[in-house]
Amino acid sequence: MRLHRLDLTAFGPFGGKQSVDFDELSAAGLFLLHGPTGAGKTSVLDAVCYALYGSVPGARQSGQGLTLRSDHAAPGTRTEVTLELTVAGRRLEVTRQPPWERPKKRGTGTTVEKAQSLLREHDAVAGAWKDLSRSHQEIGEEITQLLGMSREQFCQVVLLPQGDFARFLRADAEARGRLLGRLFDTRRFAEVEKRLAERRRTAEARVREGDAALLADAHRMQQAAGDAMDLPDLAPGEPGLAEAVLTAAAVARGTAREQLTIAECALLTAGSAQAAAERELADVRELDRLQRRFAEARERARLLEERAGDHREARARMERAHKAEAVAPALELREAADAEHRRAAAAEARARALLPERFAGAGAAGLATAARRAVEELGGLESARRGERRLAGLLAERTGLDRQERADEDVLAETEGWLAAWETTRAALQERVESAQEAATRAEQLAVQREPARSRLAAARLRDRLTRDTDDAQREALAAGERALAARTHWLDLKEQRLSGIAAELAATLRDGEPCAVCGGTDHPAPARKVAGHVGREAEEEALAAYQRAEQGRTDAERALGLVRAELAAARAEAGDTPTGQLVAESEELERAHSQARRDASALHSAREELRRAEQEHERRTTAQREAAVRAASRVGHRERLERERLALEEELAEARGSSPSVSARAEQLERQAARLTEAADAARAAEESADRLKAADGRLDEAAFRAGFDTPQAAADALLDEAARRELQRRLDAWQSEEASVRAVLAEPDTVAAARRPAVDLTAAGQEAGRAAERLRRAASAQDAAARRCAELDRLSARAADAVRRLAPLREEYERVARLAGLTAGTSADNERKMRLEAYVLAARLEQVAAAATARLQRMSSGRYTLVHSDDRAGRGRSGLGLHVVDAWTGRERDTATLSGGETFFASLALALGLADVVTDEAGGVRLDTLFIDEGFGSLDDQTLDEVLDVLDSLRERDRSVGIVSHVADLRRRVHAQLEIVKGRSGSVVRQRGQ
Length: 996
Hints:
With 996 residues, the protein is of the alpha+beta class. It has 26 helices and 17 strands. A hairpin with a 4-residue loop joins strand 8 and strand 9. The model has no long low-confidence stretch (mean pLDDT 77).
């Protein structure tokens, strides 16, 4: 990695824009970065780190980058850092802008603008920079991958902080481990330790979980065994737990099986006793049932004897009801005749009440005769009723004639007024039709003129646009010509410069012993050297290509100008020289006149239609006037005929209606009288016939009652029973007979009679004895079931415990293996004699490499006196592996680095830093670190040691490195000629650079 240029704007103490040319400073190999305290020496290194990684070292990175902005910067100047460097053969430019509070563009106050980043790469072929990325993350990943170092490694390897390495020399093993871990990124080894510890904890947790489940099953077996099982006094994870649990389970299973055998024997004994007690209870219950059955039968027989009188009475009542059933038809016939006679008499009374008083004593025949006379009189009024209806029609017809006469008079009056104005109306409508026809003709003429006017206006507008395009194309052609001329001049200048320095270019191809292409000699005593600004073939060819591109651009611009001019000439030929505004006005006037003519012409159809409707209305009104006159003449004769017919009908109707208000009223009166007389005659005949039938029914009823043995018809009627009463009486008789037969059957049973002769039994005592036997059987069955379930549960739990032990065996083996590895890598195992962790072991190897690389430079700085060696001895009670000692050649003794003096500590730490840089570089994949910075510490050296240290630093140039020294020591300004001075002031610091 080589730094070329650093640009700072409003960064740290630098208020304005400052530039550092590292190429100029690195030419000497060793350069000095100096300035007063607080001027900003460290800020230059911070800017390099910020450009690469987007952050600065240590505590200076805070506030999300807002604190990086210079307090001396103008409000509108944005903080920016640009670093140009070469890494892995690629020339890159990194630009970073941290977030900043800028003034608002509108209003007052400030707003925070986000950070921005840009990564560019120089394309040597094209000679230009091309953008690679603007993403913070992508740029950070790209830089880290190219450098092969994190920010912490870069700050320790490239920006060598001597204070940190002095502390590293005096630090204990833990502190050295933390620093080396950051530099060499041994997190993967620490992660191995962590993963092994996690696997150990996980395996231990799984073993403990399995043991806990095993103990839980053991507790369940203890509960199932009834506390007859002794559990092992072991915790989960302790050895021997599985064997102890399985042994205790085997003992518990044997005890449970013995208890099951005892319970099964007790169950058989209790079952036999319970069966005997049940049989005894069944015999007692049967004897008690027979005794109660005999007692109940005796009680039922007593009750039947008490109700014997009621039974005889009911039987006699049933016999009389059977006799009365023979008289029932005659009774029903007499009742029906009596009801019919009462209805007929009532109907006759109602009909006679509606007749006049003169018909009160008339019989059925007299009433029928009177009804016939009323019907005959009603028939004589039919002709008068038709005349009455005709008279009503005559009156309605005369009213219609009057209404028609008034309507015709209205029509005649309206028609005469409308026809009087007809000639004026027709002339106005005819004029509207002629005006619309003229407008249509005018619209057709204007439509023919519109298209040429539009075409001419479009050509005028195209003419104006092409005029502007011609001016633009002419300016572009002139500019292209100037660019082509400038490119040709530049190409010729470069060609002349190359020809001037062609000797140096040819000298670069010279080889000792080979002839020169110019003179042919094989000796080359003083070959030409390239001077600053030498022009090579690539630059000349690039200038030629630029000239050819510019010439092609000029040709294209002139071709485009010719095309535009041709189009402009064509547009002018069509549009002429008339201004576009005038053509627009003429076109708009033509469009307005055409639109007005079309609107006027659109009324032609409506005007013709209105004229046609007016002529039709004239014809209709003329016809209506003529028809009204004809109807008026015919109405005079018609009205006279109606009047003569009316007088004749009124005379005839006066005679027919008599004292009634009308013939219809007289007819309705006769109709009601005839209907009432007919109804009364029919009711009288029905009453006479029903009386005859009632008399015949009485005779038949007397005869039927006598034959059935009843004194009177009423006695027979009283003996009859309805259906419900008869069924109820029959049910009582049947129940009596059934009960009597049942009682006799029970009292005749031999078993029942024999049981009644025996003494009464004690059913309660027998039941209690059977209950006690059943309880003893239940307890025995429960005990047997509990013993069986205990055996089954113990077998199940034992099988599950044995299965769990088999499953836990691989887990336990894995746990023991992982625990041994975790203890070994953590340094806690007895096998790890030095108590060294895996990460410390790897770091010890790295520290041994660093000590070897540092010793090469330390011996030169100390004139061969000191050598750095690695020690893996334990320090006190701590762990071993990261010890660092110095061997003093003058005394031949090895001692701790903390015993070195201040100057010795400085050059020892410097040697350590340089050695560490070499090792980290190799660790990072061999990325060359061509630019290094060493920060402070030179003031503690004497002149001789300082010379030796500078000689060592100067020797770094052999590896094509440049070293920047950051120091206040004044003597270094005399010894180091290339310098970068930081000068501070009230308006911020500035950079002054001095080369070789």
